[in-house]
Design goal:
The complex is a heterodimer of chains A (110) and B (118).
Chain A (H helix, E strand, L loop, with lengths): L8 E4 L5 E6 L11 E6 L6 E4 L13 E6 L2 E6 L8 E8 L5 E3 L3 E5 L1
Parallel strand pairs in A: 1-9
Antiparallel strand pairs in A: 2-6, 3-4, 3-7, 5-6, 7-8, 7-9
Chain B lengths: L1 E5 L2 E3 L5 E8 L8 E6 L5 E7 L6 E3 L7 E6 L4 E6 L8 E8 L6 E4 L3 E5 L2
Parallel strand pairs in B: 2-11
Antiparallel strand pairs in B: 1-3, 3-8, 4-5, 4-9, 5-6, 7-8, 9-10, 9-11
The chains are: A mainly beta (110), B mainly beta (118).
C-alpha cells in the first residue's frame, strides 16, 4: 500500500492552466478507473473534485478536469483563480481492495 | 446533509478509543463508509471501509488487527474501535461517504482529533 506519487508543489498565475500528476502502479491507478481528486483548504475537510478518473460531481466548475494514461492520472485546472489555492490529493482503488492516497500537492496561485 | 465525528481525545499508548460518526440527511444504509486520517501537517491516509450492510470490511496495513470498523444503521452511526494505540496514530480522523462504491468520497465530516501521548 505505497502512497501514490504527486509533486509536492505546483504554481500558476491567475487565468493560466496547471496540471497535477498522480503516479501509481498497474495495481492501482493503472488497473482501475477509480481515481478521485480532492481539494483541501487549510483547516477544512477535503472536497471531492473528480471521481472515476474524469467525472465531476454535480455543480462543480468545469474548470476542473481529470484524465489518465497508463499508471498516471492527472488533474487539470484551467482559468486559475485565487480560491483554487489549496492542497490537492489523488486517491485510487487498489487490487488489495483498499484505497491509497497520494502525498498531496500544494497549489500556489501567484 | 452531513456527518459529525466524535470520540477523539488524548490517550496513552497502548490504550483504546472508539470514534463515532453520526450521519443525517441521507439514507445511511445505502452507502459504503470510510475512515480517513490526517496526521498534523501531513497528507491524507485511508484507514478502513465498511460496505453498506456491514458485511464487508477492509483495513490499511498500518491499522489491521488493531482497528475495527462497524456501523449501526438503526442509529445512522459509523464507528471505529481503535485498540493498542501508538504515537503514530495521532491524527485528525474523518469519516467519509462513498457515493460510488469505488471511492468517490463525496461527503466528509469535520474530523475528530486523536492524540496518542504519554
Amino acid at each position: 500500500q505505497s502512497a501514490l506519487t504527486q509533486p509536492a508543489s505546483v504554481s500558476g498565475s491567475p487565468g493560466q492552466s496547471i496540471t497535477i500528476s498522480c503516479t501509481g502502479t498497474s495495481s492501482d491507478v493503472g488497473g482501475y478507473n477509480y481515481v478521485s481528486w480532492y481539494q483541501q483548504h487549510p483547516g477544512k475537510a477535503p472536497k471531492l473534485m473528480i471521481y472515476d478518473v474524469s467525472n465531476r460531481p454535480s455543480g462543480l466548475s468545469n474548470r476542473f478536469s481529470g484524465s489518465k494514461s497508463g499508471n498516471t492520472a492527472s488533474l487539470t485546472i484551467s482559468g486559475l483563480q485565487a480560491e483554487d489555492e489549496a492542497d490537492y490529493y489523488c486517491s485510487s482503488y487498489t487490487s488489495s481492495a483498499v484505497w491509497v492516497f497520494g502525498g498531496g500537492t500544494k497549489l500556489t496561485v501567484l | 446533509v452531513h456527518l459529525v465525528e466524535s470520540g477523539g481525545g488524548v490517550v496513552q499508548p497502548g490504550r483504546s478509543l472508539r470514534l463515532s460518526c453520526a450521519a443525517s440527511g441521507f439514507t445511511f444504509s445505502n452507502y459504503p463508509m470510510h475512515w480517513v486520517r490526517q496526521a498534523p501537517g501531513k497528507g491524507l491516509e485511508w484507514v478502513a471501509v465498511i460496505s453498506y450492510d456491514g458485511s464487508i470490511k477492509y483495513y490499511a496495513d498500518s491499522v489491521k488487527g488493531r482497528f475495527t470498523i462497524s456501523r449501526d444503521s438503526s442509529r445512522n452511526t459509523l464507528y471505529l474501535q481503535m485498540n493498542s494505540l501508538r504515537a503514530e496514530d495521532t491524527a485528525l480522523f474523518y469519516c467519509a461517504r462513498d457515493n460510488s462504491g469505488q471511492g468517490a468520497f463525496d461527503m466528509w465530516g469535520q474530523g475528530t482529533m486523536v492524540t496518542v501521548s504519554s
